[in-house]
Amino acid sequence: MKHLMKAGCGVALAVLFLGSAASANEYRLSNNQRIACGRGLSPGKLSTATCKSYAYLFNIKTSEYFRCQVSVSLTRDNKEVINTQADGGCVKKPRIFDTDSSYSFDATETEPPNTNSFFGQGGYAVWASDNNARKVRGCIIISSGLGSDITKCQDMKFE
């Protein structure tokens, strides 16, 4: 009976592990990561440098994606580093296609600060294609400056 319980626990753990491993294989990191850095002077001869980078994590089965960002700031005087701070996280975005399939994905966005941006930090573009059909969708997401983003997607026509 003990052997049966051990075998049952082993099978349950294997199923649990394989289930999570299969879903982990459904995610891909975009090939288009960017970094933007800036410097500033603070009172008392302090200087600050801040760098931000972003990437996109895409579910190749559902076409849902996450926008991930990391930032690091450094404050120093003429002699030493006074402070460093880091922050980061990923925000889930809605799926691009309504049905599950096998998708490819890439994204890019404006580099802040951007003088071409009318509202806020600008926007980003997301491209996704179905690997099983001739289907491509391009989306542009623009910050409205009012707390919400405006997303418009267009299916590509092939001539």
The count of β-strands is: 9
Rg, Å, rounded: 22 Å
Poorly predicted tracts of residues:
1-22
The level of helicity is: 10-25%
For the terminal residues, how far apart are their CA atoms?
67 Å
- Could you report the average pLDDT, rounded to the nearest whole number? 76
> Main beta sheet, described?
5 strands, antiparallel
Query: Which class do the helix and strand fractions yield?
Result: mainly beta
Helical segment count: 1
Order of helices and strands: HEEEEEEEEE
Coarse shape: elongated
Proportion of beta-strand residues: over 45%
Written account of the structure:
With 159 residues, this protein is mainly beta. The chain has one helix and nine strands; from the N terminus they run H-E-E-E-E-E-E-E-E-E. The chain has one helix at residues 2-24, and strands at 27-29, 34-42, 46-59, 65-76, 81-93, 103-109, 123-130, 135-143, 149-155. The strands form two sheets. Strands 1, 2, 3, 4 and 5 form a five-stranded antiparallel beta sheet that branches. It has a four-stranded antiparallel beta sheet with strand order 6-7-8-9, with no helix packed on it. A hairpin with a 4-residue loop joins strand 7 and strand 8.
Briefly say what this structure is.
The protein has one helix at 2-24, and strands spanning 27-29, 34-42, 46-59, 65-76, 81-93, 103-109, 123-130, 135-143, 149-155.
